[in-house]
Amino acid sequence: MPQPPPIKIAFCITDLDPGGAERALVQLVTRLDRQRFDPHVICLSPAGDLTTTLESAGVPVTCLNVRRRWDISVVWRLYRELRKLRPQILQTFLFHANLAGRIAAWFARVPHVISGIRVAEQRRNSYLFLDRATEWMVEKHVCVSQGVCEHSRSSGRLSPAKLCVIPNGVDFERFSAAAPLDLSSWKIEPEDQVWVTVGRLDPQKGPWDLLTAVEQLHAKHPRLKLLWAGRGPLQADMQQWIDTHQLQNTIHLIGWQDNIPGLLRAARGFVLFSHWEGMPNVVLEALAAGLPVISTNVEGVAEIIDDRQTGWIVKAGDDFSDRWDAVLQDTENAARVALAGQQQVREHFSWDAMALRYMDLYQEISQAAERR
């Protein structure tokens, strides 16, 4: 019996700069079975750093070069691209691509639209309203965690029948075997207790909670250092706070870093103080690197960490300093918990497993359409 032609899938994402959702898309698309699926990636923005990664893997990429998030001309550009490609399935990631994608797909008569919900958005109610208003155009919503799924059902009021969960993965060997980064450029000494966080300098990430916790711990743990990798709108305000509190030698805003695996492997621990998330990839990465992890109980974290067994979970907005102090003092227990967390990630979170679940979903949707 001849092999049926591969299912044509268009993947649409807001941009291809190196963020969590963008990296997840690359991991998914490059793992698809090309005998069963024919992928094409559409980026609403100009080409980003991950464009070359996809193209090097033989995945065609079209960038629509929209420079403003609310440029409605993107719907027309995307419609024309979909009419040219004629995919059987459109898979979108992130809010702007979700919204533009489903509208363009409806006009282009794409048979199946699947949206990707990557975060439990709590800052913009208009996002939830627009998601709900256009949900009739969507066949399935893939949530990155059970926490995001519950938020989409309760706060977003999306149809439970359309919601499903496919968690993120992590490239375990890339983080567990990375060579530690040289931290001397930030005046880090071998005796220092270096902890790391990674993310945008944005209110979502709880920056003032984190900076305050470091200030409270500094007197008791003078060798404690925090390296924050990332950029964002609060950078100037945060640096001013650091300078005002004379913590320039303790807290370092180190900007975006290409070598996150090396940075994590050079650290003693990892903290995440976010107020909301989806399923934070960086927690998986820190655990894979073998670090003790302290995180707020944001969406997805409780699905990764068993509190006090594979990491530590604290309620967002609570005082972190006591929990962090206990971890810093009991290094033997911290090492035991970190090892258990690393093993948990190795066994249960892989990009291959994530890709298989997406492929099963695409096959199921395609076969159901053939039966109708």
- Spatial separation of the terminal alpha carbons: 22 Å
Question: Could you tell me the number of beta strands?
Answer: 13
CATH top-level class of the largest domain: Alpha Beta
Helix and strand succession?
EHEHEHEHEHEHEHEHEHEHEHEEHHH
Fold and architecture overview:
By secondary structure, this protein is an alpha/beta fold. It folds into two domains: 7-169 and 350-371, Glycogen Phosphorylase B (Rossmann fold, 3-Layer(aba) Sandwich), CATH 3.40.50; 172-348, Glycogen Phosphorylase B (Rossmann fold), CATH 3.40.50. The chain contains 14 helices and 13 strands. It has helices at 20-31, 49-56, 73-85, 95-108, 125-133, 146-154, 172-176, 207-218, 235-244, 260-265, 281-288, 321-329, 331-348, 351-371; strands at residues 7-13, 37-43, 61-63, 89-93, 112-117, 140-143, 163-165, 193-198, 224-229, 251-255, 269-272, 293-296, 312-314. The strands form two sheets. The protein has a seven-stranded parallel sheet with strand order 3-2-1-4-5-6-7, with helices on both faces. Strands 10-9-8-11-12-13 form a six-stranded parallel sheet, sandwiched between helices. Helix 1 packs across helix 14 and helix 3 (73-85) crosses helix 4 (95-108). The two termini are 22 Å apart. The relative contact order is 0.12. The model has no long low-confidence stretch (mean pLDDT 93).
Draw up the topology in text:
Elements: E1 7-13, H1 20-31, E2 37-43, H2 49-56, E3 61-63, H3 73-85, E4 89-93, H4 95-108, E5 112-117, H5 125-133, E6 140-143, H6 146-154, E7 163-165, H7 172-176, E8 193-198, H8 207-218, E9 224-229, H9 235-244, E10 251-255, H10 260-265, E11 269-272, H11 281-288, E12 293-296, E13 312-314, H12 321-329, H13 331-348, H14 351-371
Parallel strand pairs: 1-2, 1-4, 2-3, 4-5, 5-6, 6-7, 8-9, 8-11, 9-10, 11-12, 12-13
Helix pairs in contact: 1-14, 3-4
